[in-house]
Amino acid sequence: MKNNYRLKSKLALLFVIAIIFVGQSQQTDQDQIKKLYDTALTEGDGYDWLNYLSNQIGGRLSGSIQAQQAVDYTKAQLDSLGLDKVWLQPVKVPKWVRGTPEFAYFETSPGTTTNVPICAIGGSVATPATGVKANVIEVQGIEQLAALGKDKIQGKIVFFNKPMDDTQINTFTAYSNCVDQRYAGALEASEFGAVGVIVRSMNLRLDDYPHTGSMNYGEQAVSDRIPAAAISTNAAELLSTSLKLNPAIEFYFKQNCKQFNDVESYNVIGEIRGTTKPEEVIVVGGHLDSWDLGDGSHDDGAGCVQSMEVLNLFKKTGYKPKRTVRVVLFMNEENGLRGGKKYAEIASTKNEKHIFALESDSGGFSPRGFTFESSDKDFEKVLEWKSLFKPYLIHYFEKGFSGADIGPLKNDGLLLAGLRPDSQRYFDHHHAENDTFEHVNKRELQLGAASMASLIYLVDKYGF
User: Fold this and answer.
1) pLDDT for 206 beyond 80
2) In angstroms, rounded to a whole number, what is the distance separating the alpha carbons of residues 444 and 427?
3) Which of 333, 334, 359, 433 is catalytic?
4) Which helix (H) or strand (E) holds 348?
5) Where are the beta strands (DSSP E) in 153-297?
6) Could you tell me if 194 and 154 are in contact, meaning their C-beta atoms sit under 8 angstroms apart?
7) DSSP-based three-state secondary structure for 464
8) Which residues have CB under 8 Å from 225's CB, separation 6+?
9) Are 433 and 294 spatial neighbours (Cβ–Cβ below 8 Å)?
10) Percent of the chain with pLDDT over 90
């Protein structure tokens, strides 16, 4: 009886100690996370870094002088943080140049023309020197090409006019459901004899900004490739209405883009080495390249400076991670994903043990939460931390896509995550001339950085 009593007493004591320990641990986490948010909002440097990237360097198309300037600038900033290691990782990237500004109009009758805003889609071939002029056939997606057939398409310009779905609250879902017409529209239309394609911009609002983006010709011979351009949403609406009134309309466009041989560029990498488990690596990153129309502030200058800010916040708050925390600014996400693939290749060659990777590539808007690519077991552990984010209005913890650049790292044991800001305004700016610094709010940007730092703090402390 005495032994049973002593055993029960010990178990009760251990239970009380466990409750006290858990309570103290939660309080410690709350304090550290508050410190990260407070520091981000009062002492953060990300907004100033973004100001320089955007206004002093500008658009950072892979292989461009501006991309190299961004490499040099961000490396210098990481060097100034007093990290344990900062380095450049060489990677060969494609070099595509837009050339002189594009020009387009549609002609309703001889000599009666209406100019419309267009831009070449990234990777497109140029038009002939005199441009392309032909009748137009409108379709609501790639799947309609086969139904029309070669007889109705040959010799014409295909006008892809499938809009993003306004009813989708997750605007990235709306984007995913129609971006194939931009990415593969030229390849598919050329099989039916089209001489060019015009694609409605991936934009939920009606405006006069054409949105570029990547496209692919697959293994098609260069001589068989046809030019592709994006048209603004306002102009797409006008062209569509005009075609209904006059199907004989002709469309003219001229662009001078060119693809060069691959050139050498770099991923920019910096790390704080872990104190007790340095062999376990946590990655946080965004992509340093951007399209050339704007200055790439939301896509993805914001993600880069937020990722840099994570290490900056750890330094400023005196937090010493147990595991190695590494920032990677990936090159060439927009038109090749070469940086992400190269990083994963080198990590595999070195047998590095990555336990977590977090990407920010959805703009610098107010953070709402995270999406995770993980096992059910790991996701359940993540959900235990959700309440810690409640004071900061971070509530969205769901399974879903993490990020393109960290995707090549994926394996069964690695947890991937993506920062999810409010997406309602993102596609107003995505890949367009108005993706510029004045459209980024400092407070929203810094809240995103603090959210990322807080999640990485918890992963570092508790592991997987």
Assistant:
1) yes
2) 17
3) 333
4) helix 338-349
5) 157-160, 196-200, 228-231, 250-254, 258-272, 277-287
6) yes
7) coil
8) 125, 186, 190, 217
9) yes
10) 93
Q: Where are the beta strands (DSSP E) in 15-151?
A: 85-97, 103-109, 112-115, 118-120, 132-139
From residue 178, alpha-carbon distances to 11, 199, 235, 372, 429 in Å are: 60, 10, 18, 24, 17
Q: Note the pTM of the prediction, 2 decimals.
A: 0.93
Nearest to 259 by CA among 299, 293, 296, 222: 222
Specify whether the CB–CB gap between 56 and 296 falls below 8 A. Answer: no
CA angle (266, 62, 428) in 5-degree steps:
125
Q: Which pLDDT belongs to residue 16?
A: 45
Residue 43 appears among annotated catalytic residues:
no
In a 3-state reduction of DSSP, which class is residue 102? coil
Contact present, 44 and 309 (Cβ < 8 Å): yes
Q: What is the pLDDT of residues 221-280, one digit of tens each?
A: 999 999 999 999 999 999 999 999 999 999 999 999 999 999 999 999 999 999 999 999
Dig out the tokens for 86 from the structure: 């900062």
Percent of the chain surpassing pLDDT 70 = 94
Q: Largest alpha-carbon pair distance within the chain?
A: 107
Read off φ and ψ for residue 292, nearest 5 degrees: -100, -5
CB 267 within 8 A of CB 328: yes
Q: Is the pLDDT of residue 13 over 50?
A: no
Q: Look at residue 413 in the predicted model and tell me its pLDDT.
A: 83
pLDDT digits (tens, 9 = 90+) for 24-37: 566 799 999 999 99
382 alpha-carbon distance from chain centroid: 23
Q: Quick check: 180 and 172 in contact, CB under 8 A?
A: no
Element (H, E) at 372: strand 367-373
What is the strand order of the sheet 103-109 is part of? 112-115, 103-109, 250-254, 132-139, 157-160, 196-200, 228-231, 118-120
Q: Are 62 and 336 in contact (CB under 8 A)?
A: yes
How far is residue 384's CA from residue 331's CA, in Å, rounded to a whole number? 34
